[in-house]
């Protein structure tokens, strides 16, 4: 879901897919101080291999900066090899105490990008570019109106110079960090000795980035668009965009209805639409309606004997349940049906984004005092307000309200700002929320 | 490489992609007797998680039959859920003592299909269907003329009723088992209690299959087509099908050459060809020629100042080195160039398959006596001969010649056959070879 789209974007922006070993010698993890501190409580360790106790424990990768740097030191000699920009699709393991499906799991699937550059400017540009790729993916494919921005120092990943994030508002109004891009500076290159000879023959440490989205994003889609009936998938990411349910009662209706259903399936497939004909005779049409609604299929096409007679079908939208979302008597005629379905899929895509955007905007409060912030948070909302206070004050907000700074959004209001906590001038507004 | 093609084929044949946990409780592995016997010497075990010794060791999956059956028991209630047909793309771990890049590695990537059926006939049909998918993939995409067939009883995977295989001849004439499909019978369903209620309400064990190709196949491509210069990738699987190398000496030639190269790149990209313009100025054209030949790119396009003047380019084939493989003065004109490149890519694809097929056929000897077999094997060739002898005799062949039965090919010669070992009647010929 989305892997193909992201692969195209990664390649367009100059990255190659590679794969690195999943088992990492424990000594690698220890090389970067803040890295080992951050991850050591969460590691799964292999101590027995091929029936024997291992001399050195192996870490099941929680992320790959260490092994990537180990390889980069062997691949990079001079500025000619830079920038080196790779991506890996992989599973990672973090020993979480409290798990939640898709959001916080012991094992998850992700892509992790890793790049090495000759200058800090290039690394910064890359980190920003990739958070932009994620932002567009969220809006255009997943219909999730994320807010992109920079993490506060307190919330920045240990081992990174700067952390960029996309933050999504779930249906319960908690924030989900849905994608992350790190400007790693030289933390890892200094720890691993990842150096290159510049054009003057001087040895320099590379400047690095890493960036990732994971199966957590799938959780984000479920919790953004889903309702009590089940999933509601944005058409551009749905593995099945249209399900066809044939309906008949009398045996002599069967062939006519099925033939019509098969020809509609063929027509839509030829038009590049991901279509599923549910022709199983072991389930009733009502059972199938519920099943495919739960699965979040954006459009359903019903075909019964009367439809066959009139040469039409009924098209229903998952996002508008019941009669209001139904187009009765859509012509079965080739070009008419194709155009109708394509346009309805676009309607669903746009309407999911619009609905999520309205929901988000009606649940963000502009706070000009700490009291207002606390009130907004206690109502389950997000708060946005000018902030230039200390890390200690940030911790105080967290302890008293349960909310953290999700990000300083890239998109900032114009004009003079005063920190709502201290009354001092503030360069930026920050967004505060409770989060997963 | 090939993942997209296989995913389409898997979906066309009714399978859904899923993902199962990589860590498997040790007790699961112990449930199927021959399974634990086969895999226990090769397991990597996680004994520490989140800083604590685990109560039950976790196996890092060597394959997923056990965890799949654990889930299937929860998903399958009645015949209505059957057939259940899934595929997983995943990494697996086997603690190999002697490793060889791509062919035998501690960690490898693969797809593993797992299916459950109501009848043994359906399972057998599925196992055969999937080895056929692999066979077509090998011929049509990888240009590898594999021989598909059934493993002998002695070589059948423990825990399977029947093993189907595709066997490929490498450049050193060793055999590589490049893909496998198992009819698992009820071994796992009985061990795990994977049952369904049939139409009469009777509880029955499901009949299962599993099938896999892995990164080993990449090794097969390298060792089938590669030469002393490096890789030689079949165009249909090559991540880069055409590399463009611009060539100039004088500074005032640069813009003209680069503009021409960019427009050729654009033209080919629009035509759906995977093209790479190597415009870096840090390397010489000669360096680039060697580099991209080593990487196995099927076609190279050179553009120099004279080509720009005449509106033409030079096209070289990777599989025919030097002047014989060069088309000089191919028109840069849109439709002419597109047609030329597409046709040359097809030429390379066909020629790789033809070359590998000739090589294979000239290295298989029809043996009508054990002496002939041993001679063929000692010359590094494969031997094919009628076989109906015992498992003990099969072991004797292995011990004396180093060759094993690779398969009884589906494609059998007509007519009466006499076992070359015993002189008894034989139903089939078998293929013997040394293997990886």
From TrEMBL, chains A, B:
Which terms in the Gene Ontology molecular function aspect does this entry carry?
A: ATP binding; proline-tRNA ligase activity
Recorded hits in SUPFAM superfamilies, A to Z, give:
C-terminal domain of ProRS, Class II aaRS ABD-related, Class II aaRS and biotin synthetases
Return one Gene Ontology term, BP aspect. prolyl-tRNA aminoacylation
UniProt cross-references to InterPro entries, sorted A to Z: aa-tRNA-synt_IIb, aa-tRNA-synth_II, aa-tRNA-synth_II/BPL/LPL, Anticodon-bd, Anticodon-bd_dom_sf, Pro-tRNA-ligase_IIa, Pro-tRNA-ligase_IIa_arc-type, Pro-tRNA_ligase_II_C
Query: Its GO CC terms?
Result: aminoacyl-tRNA synthetase multienzyme complex; chloroplast stroma; mitochondrion
Q: Which transformation does this protein catalyse, written as a reaction?
A: tRNA(Pro) + L-proline + ATP = L-prolyl-tRNA(Pro) + AMP + diphosphate
Taxonomic superkingdom: Eukaryota
> Which residues, if any, are the signal sequence?
none
Q: Provide the E.C. number(s) assigned to this enzyme.
A: 6.1.1.15
The alphabetical list of record keywords is: Aminoacyl-tRNA synthetase, ATP-binding, Ligase, Nucleotide-binding
SMART domains for the chain? ProRS-C_1
Which species is this UniProt entry from?
Asparagus officinalis (Garden asparagus)
Pfam families from the entry?
HGTP_anticodon, ProRS-C_1, tRNA-synt_2b
- Per UniProt, the enzyme's principal EC class comes to ligase
Q: What HAMAP family does the annotation carry?
A: Pro_tRNA_synth_type3
Tell me the protein's name.
Answer: proline--tRNA ligase
- Per the database record, which ranges form the Aminoacyl-transfer RNA synthetases class-II family profile domain? 10-234
């Amino acid at each position: 879901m989305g892997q193909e789209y992201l692969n195209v974007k990664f390649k367009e922006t100059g990255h190659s897919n590679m794969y690195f070993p999943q088992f990492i010698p424990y000594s690698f993890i220890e090389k970067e101080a803040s890295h080992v501190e951050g991850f050591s409580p969460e590691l799964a360790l292999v101590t027995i291999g091929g029936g024997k106790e291992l001399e050195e424990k192996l870490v099941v990768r929680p992320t790959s900066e260490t092994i990537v740097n180990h390889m980069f030191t062997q691949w990079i000699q001079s500025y000619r090899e830079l920038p080196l920009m790779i991506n890996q699709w992989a599973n990672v393991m973090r020993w979480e105490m409290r798990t939640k499906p898709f959001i916080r799991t012991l094992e998850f699937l992700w892509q992790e990008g890793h790049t090495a550059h000759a200058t800090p400017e290039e690394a910064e540009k890359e980190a920003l570019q990739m958070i932009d790729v994620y932002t567009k993916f969220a809006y255009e494919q997943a219909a999730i109106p994320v807010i992109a921005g920079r993490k506060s120092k307190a919330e920045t990943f240990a081992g990174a110079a700067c952390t960029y994030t996309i933050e999504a508002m779930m249906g319960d109004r908690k924030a989900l960090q849905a994608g992350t891009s790190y400007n790693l500076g030289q933390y890892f290159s200094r720890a691993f000795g990842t150096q290159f000879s510049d054009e003057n023959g001087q040895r320099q440490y590379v400047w690095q980035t890493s960036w990732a989205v994971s199966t957590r994003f799938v959780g984000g889609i479920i919790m953004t668009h889903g309702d009590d009936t089940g999933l509601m998938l944005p058409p551009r990411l749905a593995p099945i965009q249209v399900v066809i349910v044939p309906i008949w009662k009398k045996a002599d209706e069967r062939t006519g209805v099925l033939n019509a259903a098969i020809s509609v399936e063929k027509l839509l497939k030829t038009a590049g639409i991901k279509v599923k004909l549910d022709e199983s005779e072991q389930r009733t049409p009502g059972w199938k309606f519920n099943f495919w609604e739960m699965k979040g299929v954006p459009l359903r096409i019903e075909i019964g004997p009367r439809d066959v007679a009139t040469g039409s079908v009924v098209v229903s939208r998952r996002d508008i349940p019941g009669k209001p979302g139904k187009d009765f008597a859509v012509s079965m005629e080739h070009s008419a049906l194709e155009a109708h379905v394509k346009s309805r899929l676009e309607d669903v895509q746009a309407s999911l984004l619009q609905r999520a955007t309205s929901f988000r905007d009606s649940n963000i409060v502009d706070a000009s005092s700490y009291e207002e912030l606390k009130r907004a948070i206690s109502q389950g909302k997000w708060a946005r307000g000018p902030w230039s206070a200390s890390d200690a004050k940030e911790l105080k907000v967290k302890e008293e309200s349960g909310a953290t700074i999700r990000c300083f959004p890239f998109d900032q209001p114009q004009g003079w700002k005063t920190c709502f906590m201290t009354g001092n001038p503030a360069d930026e507004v920050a967004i505060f929320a409770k989060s997963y």
